[in-house]
Automatic annotation (TrEMBL):
GO terms for molecular function: protocatechuate 3,4-dioxygenase activity. Coiled coil: none annotated. The keyword Oxidoreductase applies. It holds the Pfam family Dioxygenase_C. Keywords: Dioxygenase, Oxidoreductase. Its EC number is 1.13.11.3. Belongs to the intradiol ring-cleavage dioxygenase family. InterPro entries: Intradiol_dOase_C, Intradiol_dOase_core, Intradiol_RC_Dioxygenase, PCDO_beta_N, Protocat_dOase_b. Residues 78-106 form the Intradiol ring-cleavage dioxygenases domain. This is Protocatechuate 3,4-dioxygenase subunit beta. It comes from Arcicella rigui.
Length: 235
């Protein structure tokens, strides 16, 4: 178990529950002060998900939904490490990702964006961290897409991440952005995160993981507790 730092919510890093420019928070933000619950040993010592049955291509979104050809778009490799507040790796963490395709459309009936679906790209995958807390996904760089938050609103390129703890009820959700994206300065979701935490949500280009003639590499690490914890959507 790690040496615990009892700083569960750094308001200089994590987004507030109410961010008026992000309109859906007006409806879902709590109207009364929250009542914090004391954490037990099970919450403070995780996550250790244990054995889990993963498919051969669960971590490879360029292969896990092929029907009649390769998925369209720029292939990328996303890798990193899951750590505690002291930089120690956290093994056996179940990580899930979901994202839009290269044209900026999700495989979901609610998504009515007038962009093409890719029959060879599902936009979802999962993997486990290894003994050193490392993970790696192959995927297609997601496209930007319009959303109805305000006039001419576009979401930056991003990938959703979900990390599970000791059981399926312990879950942290966040988004990874790409360096140099011009839409970041206009996005209320990204700007809803305090300035101290925004850089923690932007991946870094990583030539060392880039695969010649195949895929560009990006690194995105997760810190689960402490002052440098990755901003998550739920605390």
């Amino acid at each position: 178990m790690s040496d615990i730092i009892y700083n569960l919510f750094d308001r200089e890093v994590h987004p507030p529950y109410l961010s008026p420019d992000y309109k859906s928070t007006i409806l879902r933000a709590p109207s009364k002060p929250l009542i914090p619950l004391k954490q037990s040993l099970s919450e403070l010592s995780g996550p250790i998900f244990g054995d889990f049955n993963l498919g051969e291509f669960d971590h490879d979104l360029t292969k896990n939904a092929i029907v009649n050809g390769e998925p369209l778009g720029e292939r990328i490799v996303v890798h990193g490490k899951v750590m505690n507040e002291n930089g120690k790796p956290i093994p056996n963490t179940l990580i899930e990702i979901w994202q839009a395709n290269a044209a900026g459309r999700y495989v979901h009936k609610v998504d009515q964006h007038a962009a093409p679906l890719d029959p060879n790209f599902l936009g979802a995958g999962r993997c486990m961290t290894d003994a050193e807390g490392n993970y790696k996904f192959y995927t297609i760089k997601p496209g930007a897409y319009p959303w109805g938050n305000h006039f001419n609103a576009w979401r930056p390129n991003h990938i959703h991440f979900s990390l599970f703890g000791a059981n399926i009820t312990n879950r942290l959700v966040t988004q990874m952005y790409f360096p140099g994206d011009p839409l970041l300065q206009y996005d209320p979701i990204f700007l809803g995160v305090p300035p101290k935490g925004r850089e923690l949500l932007i991946s870094s280009f990583d030539l060392s993981i880039t695969e010649p003639s195949f895929a560009l590499g990006y690194r995105f690490d997760f810190v689960l507790r402490g002052n440098n914890a990755t901003p998550f959507e739920k605390q």
